[in-house]
Amino acid sequence: ALLMVLTRCISASDAREAVDWQTLIGIGASFALGKALAKSGAAKLLAEIVVGQLGGLGPVAVLAGVYLVTLVITELISNNAAAAVVFPLAVATAAELGVSPRPFVIAVMFAASCAFATPIGYQTHMMVWGPGGYRFADFLRVGIPLNLLIWVVVVALAPFFWPF
Hints:
Number of strands: 0
Oligomer: single chain
Largest sheet: none
Mean pLDDT: 85
């Protein structure tokens, strides 16, 4: 942006007017929310509940649960915060099951990168949300089926390429 102003591609006043402050505030707030979820233990508690419920069904079911928890969290906070919150839990879960942590780490990696269902979960979504004239429901309509498709593919293929 500074280079554009310096090369006179855009005036300084036009550049200031083009800043979407609501988006910038939302991005900043998502980092705070991520920190709050991590420090309060809410994200960990949710993940422990899912793992506790699915542990008897085997590692693939637990893998699906860890993916789902990561996916839900990444839709609400930044992908980096979601991965940071769930990663240690995923590794500990694999150790508790006595299996390799690799498929769990891969699942967290993919799930944290798949914030398609809300404009809140990823910065570029927030940047296009207002200027593009999108509604929250537009993200849900396209994002939920895409999230479900990738969830099934990752849970099916991660143990194939990175065995338990």
